[in-house]
Amino acid sequence: MTEINTALTDNIGRRNRTNVRFRYLVIAGAVITVIPIFLIVGSLAIKGFRQINLAFFTQPAPDTFQAMMAASTGDIIPGGIANGLTGSLLMVFLASLFAIPPGLMTGIYIYENSSQKYARFIRSLAEILQGVPSIILGIIAYIWIVKNITKGYSALAGSVSLAIMMLPLIIRSTEETMRMIPVSIREAAFALGTPYYKMIYKILIPVSFSGLATGVLLALSRILGETAPLMLTALGSPAISFDITKPVSAVPLLIWDFYNDPNMVSLVWSASLFLMVFVLSMNLLARSVASKHKYI
Amino acid sequence: MSGDRVTKALLFISSLTILLLSAGIVISLLGGALPAFKEFGVRFITSSVWNPTEGSEEYGAMAFIAGTVITSILALIICIPMAFSTSLFIAEYYNGTRTSRILRSLVDLLAGIPSIVYGFWGFYALRPLLVATGLTDQGFGVFTASLVLAIMIVPYATSLSAEIISMVPAELKEAAYSLGATRREVIFSVVIPSARSGIIASFILALGRALGETMAVTMLIGNANVIPKGLFAPGNTMASVIANQFGEASGLKMSALIAIGLLLFLITALVNYLGKLIIKRFA
Amino acid sequence: MNNTSQNDNVLEIKDLSIAYEPGKYAVNGVTASVKRNSITAIMGPSGCGKSTLLRAINRMHELYPDIQTKGDILLDGQSIFSMSVIELRRKVGMVFQRPNPFPNMTIYENVVAGFSLNDIRMKKSRRDEIVENALRNVTLWDEVKESLYRKGTFLSGGQQQRLCVARAIAFNPEVLLLDEPTSALDPIATLKIEDLLGELKKKYTMVLVTHNMSQAARISDDSMFMYLGELVESGRTGTLFTTPKDPRTEAYLTGKFG
Lengths: 296, 283, 258
Ligand SMILES: Nc1ncnc2c1ncn2[C@@H]1O[C@H](COP(=O)(O)OP(=O)(O)OP(=O)(O)O)[C@@H](O)[C@H]1O
Ligand SMILES: [Mg+2]
Hints:
The complex is a heterotrimer of chains A (296), B (283) and C (258). Chain B has 283 residues and is mainly α.
């Protein structure tokens, strides 16, 4: 079949060239994809580091007049993000309280009853809930808490919106972690006559602990940076507050409040840098925990 | 044994949380949206008039539906070549190497950055660049929002596509290589056809993300309550109009915003369902 | 042929060593030759490097950058490493352990995959002729001629494997590499493939990796016995099976290991 040989000698050069060209195209595409990471991290680090000092963590945000005075003399802006930081921590803590226990238990329930229609339905609900845009959860917490319970914007409403976000994340990560436990471990426990609830507390949870921790950390890193639902619920507050029935600030809310204010912008760079670093470290921590966990 | 029964009961009761929650969300959205739908009927969806002036109030969601669809589709179009080449880089060209792992973690980093940080960065770093190109005066508008949105959804599309591409059996690829195909030919005639539906699903799921993104879009799209007239024209998405106007809304306007939330909920649920369906069929 | 002075050896393997990890040789200093229009069987216990050796012959290892190859392989007197890899693989076809027809292609498309993948265009009538010929050669024509335009995945394992052989020979290679082509098949399908290889010998040179000693005895002309990456012994199959020189060969043939 000399026809093949002729055809090949005719097209080998062209095919090799397209092959090489395509490879360069792929590499170029990948490089373009990662460029924004360096641009974002770089510009935040350069513009944000100047304001990061002790006051940044201990004092509430200044008002725009104070910021303007400082800016006009070239000083760094007084004050910090303490009101946002405390508000974020308060709401994330409450949200964890609301979401982690039922999330874990629902995850275990689905895993234990995975053959049942009801459990599979619950799992699909969690999947759907996970895809709901966060702003909609803000509307929900507004209707439920702001309008009906605290009769005004409140930390409680903010944490409820965050908790609704967190719940499906916890459920799914719990179930997926449990599913990786070899059946033999469960069977070994039952073979020793272990009662069901002990099997869960003494075997299932401890064996999958690091996996569960990863899921929780990832969920926390997701809600820490959330802004949209908090705009509709926690609103923001210039002062440090721990009253869950009153409005509070949050780091992302501070960014939202001040990003358009030219006097405050350098403080907002710092707040953004801090938020990014905080969220990404949580993320990395989660991944390092995940990479360590191995089952027998 | 009573401990057993208590445990089982507790687990079951906790599973009710999500059931009640889901029902509550749907009921509350429907209830909140009802006044707007009663007042305007189908016109609420088809009209693009958004007029909060007292006395002549009229609300239609079309401008925002259009804004959402246009920005998300544009973001997807920008995202596709980036995510596609990155997933080939990770899962095909450099599969299993250090380079691939590093790139994968970098892309994962993108997924971790909060939306508001993207918005802020877009506002102060990206917008001036776009203004400098001379294509736009202020830098606000559909294109700016879509560009940032694209960067935000790239990691989702990439990680899923990469996973699916790496699942293409080596023996199939080797069969093609053994016949003399070049790598590019193997990719186009074996890898992509085998992974096609999975790759499509990963882009659909990325689209689902884009549809509901709020903060970055709100800060960059220019917030005009009209159907965007061009690539660099301002507009508003469903999520961004809620973010912008919910705080000062009451009465019919609040109901209209909740109704927009309900529509957004339905659209994202539909898109996500479609993506998951394709993934399940694929697996 | 381009080299008139050449002897009957299609392939000459010269001091070939292959390592998956630096310093750990899966194939170690193998020197061997393969005669034209014959079947050469490579035998040996699991993990001794048979597949590794076979895959080196069409430079499959280049797909995995970590793998190191030393030594040389000559095809018709020319080093395979000096050829373009496309040219080499056009001359050296391969059939894998598990049948792997392309699931996205019809039976017809699978047979001419070599042409389409290599971007070789030709008239429909010529393609039809190639498909029919190749499928007749692998005795699959009568079984699939009604369903040429269906996906190849509904075929039985044995039929799929014959389809894969057809795919390889449609491209008319000189050498056909077969890596345990029958190990995933039942005895009847295995017999069919063995008969087929006996027929194909008239036109092609074949190198066959097999675990199955009786298969090697039945259909191969020459045999190589490998152990721990080294070529322990090679020669005419009859001689090697009846009077092995090396005690390790003897031990293997009498079922002491592997
Ligand atoms: N991809 C790989 N990476 C690292 N080591 C490998 C790889 N493939 C094979 N090896 C090692 O190389 C050696 C030879 O493997 P090879 O597959 O060539 O053996 P084989 O003789 O074909 O065995 P089998 O009869 O089981 O197919 C083995 O020790 C194996 O563990
Ligand atoms: Mg092998």
